[in-house]
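User: Here's a structure from my thesis project, written as structure tokens. My advisor, Dr. K., wants to see whether a designed sequence matches the one we expressed. Can you design one independently, without my sequence as a hint?
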């Protein structure tokens, strides 16, 4: 126990010194009309620049990676220019921001992909539904990627990282969590390939490690993080031995000298669905040698205590950052927190997005 360290103790994160250990977790908000970031998004992220680090919402590395209507991409010049508005807004306020690089894999639909089938490690459908321009639809069985195609997908992540730097981002986070493509390769419930990308845990980890190689070659390891969710059951994810699978991959990530590993704890749905690793962070703390970011249901007290126990080095906050643009200040003053309104998480406009009050305004 090191009670000296709390959420407000500065910390070195790869290439950057952060003024606090409070990270804004990546959150999809679906305000990128036609998949292009815009000035409304710049206002939203700029408002939250007092975070030690902001990680953006998941961002598609290619047209086939688009899992949602109005989620942003990072593969066209217009998208890079749109993201530049966001990075400028955050930097003007003195903040730091990483882009979350994402491929949705089987969590997509031909209605979102110009008629093409989603791609995945195996032709196994996720469980759930999606909103598309033609209404709400169930997930369909994806097409299994051919072995020679995989190198092309790895390259898309590398290009995404290049574009992220061109847009002014301070680094990137790989979205390896929550049942999307990287996670689909890792877990054996969604990966039943018989080539070098399936079967053993070494083979199932090959894709994420190749992507990591491509992305760190562009940014340097000290500007790259990765988010994993070993206990996630979202969209029907499962693994027959998550301790072994995630233990292997987390150990393999040690060699990249990353800015951080971001681990998500199970939520109530995961805990109700099946027996999962709980808690996740202290277990993998023993394997991971670098900077560890904890996520999932934290508040000021639990955040301070995981840091004081030395079970993590930073804490990311999701929903509390939606409703509290000045979350670090509120936590520091132990001030009242605004409650996030779930109805507007994915609303099409500024409501529930840029209109949550700051402390001073609220007081007056
Ligand atoms: C509206 C919403 C959108 C989210 N979108 C993403 C996303 O794009 N990428 C991601 O890795 N996690 C996403 N998450 C998960 C959060 O990053 C975080 O893991 C989760 O909310 C738990 O943290 P919290 O308890 O502090 O909210 C999302 C969560 C919410 C509430």
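Assistant: Designed independently from the structure alone:
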């Amino acid at each position: 126990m090191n009670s000296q360290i709390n959420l407000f103790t500065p910390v070195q994160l790869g290439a950057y010194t952060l003024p606090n250990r409070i990270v804004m977790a990546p959150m999809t908000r679906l305000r990128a009309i036609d998949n292009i970031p815009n000035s409304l998004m710049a206002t939203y992220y700029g408002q939250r620049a007092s975070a030690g680090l902001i990680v953006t919402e998941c961002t598609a590395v290619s047209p086939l990676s688009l899992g949602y209507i109005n989620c942003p991409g990072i593969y066209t010049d217009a998208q890079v220019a749109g993201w530049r508005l966001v990075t400028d807004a955050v930097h003007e306020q003195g903040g730091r921001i990483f882009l979350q690089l994402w491929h949705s894999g089987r969590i997509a639909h031909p209605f979102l992909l110009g008629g093409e089938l989603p791609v995945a490690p195996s032709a196994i459908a996720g469980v759930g539904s999606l909103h598309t321009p033609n209404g709400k639809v169930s997930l369909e069985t994806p097409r299994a990627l051919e072995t020679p195609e995989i190198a092309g997908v790895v390259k898309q992540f590398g290009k995404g990282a290049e574009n992220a730097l061109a847009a002014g981002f301070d680094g990137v986070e790989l979205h390896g969590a929550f049942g999307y493509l990287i996670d689909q390769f890792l877990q054996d419930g969604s990966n039943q390939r018989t080539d070098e990308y399936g079967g053993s845990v070494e083979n199932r980890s090959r894709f994420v490690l190749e992507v990591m190689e491509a992305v760190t070659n562009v940014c340097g390891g000290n500007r790259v993080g990765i988010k994993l969710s070993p206990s996630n059951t979202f969209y029907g994810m499962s693994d027959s031995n998550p301790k072994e699978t995630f233990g292997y991959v987390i150990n393999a990530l040690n060699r990249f000298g990353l800015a951080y590993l971001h681990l998500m704890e199970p939520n109530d749905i995961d805990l109700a669905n099946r027996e999962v690793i709980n808690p996740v962070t202290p277990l993998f703390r023993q394997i991971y040698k670098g900077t560890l970011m904890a996520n999932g249901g934290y508040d000021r007290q639990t955040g301070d205590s995981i840091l004081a126990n030395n079970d993590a080095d930073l804490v990311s906050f999701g929903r509390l950052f939606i409703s509290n643009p000045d979350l670090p200040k509120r936590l520091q003053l132990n001030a009242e927190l605004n409650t996030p309104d779930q109805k507007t998480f994915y609303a099409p406009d500024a409501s529930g997005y840029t209109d949550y009050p700051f402390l001073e305004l609220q007081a007056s």
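When you compare it with your expressed construct, this may help: The pocket of flavin mononucleotide is lined by residues 25-28, 57-58, 100, 175, 177-178, 227, 264, 295-298, 317-320, 345 (CB under 6 Å).
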